[in-house]
UniProtKB/TrEMBL annotation:
Transmembrane segments: 84-102
Record's keyword annotation contains Membrane: yes
Identification of the protein by name: Toxin
Organism of provenance: Kaistella haifensis DSM 19056
Gene3D superfamilies: 3.30.2310.40
Amino acid sequence: MATKDEVSQFLKELKSVSAAGEIFFIDRQVNTQTLAELEIKALERKAYIEKLVLEDYSEGPLDNDQYGIEPMWVFGKKVKEKEVYIKITITALNVICISFHTSKYPMNYPFK
């Protein structure tokens, strides 16, 4: 588990990189289905990610064997009364959102 300072630093980097670059969303059926079920647009999804705070942290950094070598971080956010599981990583130029879907299990928030 990361410390509060490590999570805060990650979130600061997330905001900086997303402001300068782009957030790429992995096109998985579960992610697309969640957007439809929650009736939110892609731009709204981006806004939820950009508004993540320390208390939304769930786990990480996790080994990344899918999208480069940078670690993955997991956050959760309430969206229209549903808990959404958000897994993201940051490259040198972009933020990659691997997961943005309704959580399958209750999430743990160590800093809430």
